[in-house]
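Subgroup meeting minutes
Present: P.N., E.W., G.H.
Scribe: E.W.

1. P.N. recapped why we're keeping a running log of single-chain structure predictions: easier to compare across weeks, and new members can see raw inputs and outputs side by side.
2. G.H. added today's entry (353 aa).
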Amino acid sequence: MGNVHGHTVDFNAEATLMHFNLLRSVGRGSFGKVRIVERKDTKQVYALKYISKRECIRMDALRNVFRERNILESIDHHYVVNLRFSFQDDDYMYMVTDLMLGGDLRFHLLRKPYIEEDEIRHWLAELACGLGYLHSRGIMHRDVKPDNILLDEHGHLHLTDFNIATHFNQNRRITSESGTYVYMAPEMFTGKGYTHAVDWWALGVIFYEAMYGRRPFDAPNNDALKRKIRDEQPNFPSIGRQGRALSIDCIEAMMMFMERSPERRLCCGAEGWRELRRVRFFEDINWTKIENKESTPVFVPDSERPNFDVAYDLEELLMEQEPLEARPRRKTDLSRMSKEMQLIEKRFKTFDY
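Output recorded in log:
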């Protein structure tokens, strides 16, 4: 038991915001924000994503939030940012996940002058293991990009942000144009549907971006960008960032991930992600250690320096109109709520791992 603002807190009961100490803010999305929290009874730290119910309804995004929460409840893997608790109060929906202190991959791609082939090789191996797990569960991520890949303090990579992830099966193709355009695969713009192969293309774009310091396609607007991705072949120069020569094995692996035909794309055959074991670029990888998360990362984030935007916490403190605060729920008649609010009450279930 504990006491918060005069209210008794039962730590054996379903999780609520009162079970956590609110620490610094570390990020935000279109209708969700993220901050570090500490469980009061265990002192374990987590990341708390909190989503405004009203903003979510206004943006017609309830279905995405429900889908993300349900997908996260169904998975648990060491290369995924796993859900640990979910709950709601009168104003917000909350998802408490593993905390990653190493920052996102975008931060490191921008800060490092170049990426060693050993670094990208290890990153891709871990991400492939994580994607392989998701695909084995019938889940395609659809938004694999550096911003949605988080590093822990040891340098291991984890997939996050399942906001537009979806379930799939081999007998049904998905047709919606969901994702971030520069990482979307050519088949997503043909109108003929696509499969989980789009995640492997996105991994190839990340590979390309890491080695060349730019994306494979550039255009003045989204329509032109979609046409380029759909119709053109990327170029694979032999020289990468900072004038560094790339190995033939590295370039060949990039080309295999960015194969325009989904059927011939790397990791899209019968063996799935295990096809990587036969690719020369990955021949030095100890796959048993990768699968068990026992490998030693080549790159380790600097623990003496912040691995995210240090200005964000102050900005959030000054600009947030309704600071987050733990308070007991109001007793409200469900029948007096809007249909959307009723749906949230019914669909956004409490979860405790």
